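I'd like us to work through together how a protein chain folds, taking it slowly. To get us started, please write out a protein record for me. Label the sequence line and the structure token line clearly, so we can match residues to local backbone shapes. Once you have written the record down, we can walk along the chain together.
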Amino acid sequence: MKDIYRHAKAVGAMLLAAAVVVAVPSQLWADGMVIPPANYEGSLEEQSQEAMIIFQSSDIPGGATEDLILKITVEGAVDQFAWVIPLPNQPTVKKADAKLFKELYDYVAYRLRPRMKKGSMGKLGGSFGAPEAAADVKVLSREIVGSYDVAVVRENRPGTLNKWLGDEGYQRIRSGEEVIEFYRRKGYVFTCVKVSDTELTADKPVDLHPLRLTFKTGGRDGIYFPMKMTGLQERRFDVNLYVFYGAWLNDRLNKYGYEHRGFHRKYRDWDSRKCKPNAGKNWARPKSDPFLRSAAARIPTVAKLLRELHPGERHYLTNIQAFGLDPAEVRNWPDDLWLFPYYVNKRFIPYDARPGSPAAPAYQR
């Protein structure tokens, strides 16, 4: 970006001494909502959720791009469900490797020491029915992605997304019209995910791999993560995010920091004496990076993905978490979670938080 910003410097030893080692929670929710079949009367809860975000800012309004990689576990005696994820723009959807999350967890544990107890992931299932059941819900794309049948839809008239889900054989999003309308008015799309019929009928276990959704955020410097629909759940939930970006993220510098949304930093990369200040790390080729070299053997899958997606870019990893978020409070947030760069000037307003920009609703109150 042309406007120069730089992150605050930190001494590695001080960061390690101040870091709080927190065990990965056994239950992690976020990003959207799981919806059971219409005739299902049992409990269906999103048991575990993690996300990896790779963000590329832009000098051009609307030019920023984001790779959002999601891993989910659903608990419930059911083999079908719909997973609905709101996004600012239509994504491309690809299969991702579950090893990404294991490697990132191990990397953070290696940096923080002592090692922490690993979390667990469960199973999920389901399959879509007819391709387009409601005239007022436009199906933008539909394809099989690895184990999943993925439909990206846009609701054009209030109430029709719930009708579309009902016609697909799934329960409506209970008490969700207000939240759905919030996204409809913003022009967002809904990515609906199920395990494909092909995978369910195959004579083998279903490979419940993560999904990578790549999309335009609609802005320049705001990193997006959907939260409001998760607020429709009844139980408190936790969130665990691994964010890759070319600079540090604003934690509590001003009202645009993520700590004001109940998140706290577990870990972030820093600049050692051998590093070029404020230049990020070569995650695509960690063996050549003085900071990452000692950990390179732990992150081969992460490095491979960064080489494929952003071979010439450098990033800092920031791991942030929130525990015990109250669904009612999240539902009342004016917008989803937006993360911003660490602009040294405390009075500087992030581009995407300004009036008329994608994250502006979060700061208009």
In short: Confidence is low (pLDDT under 50) at residues 1-30, 36-48, 75-79, 115-134. Residues 12-363 form one domain. The longest strand covers residues 45-56.
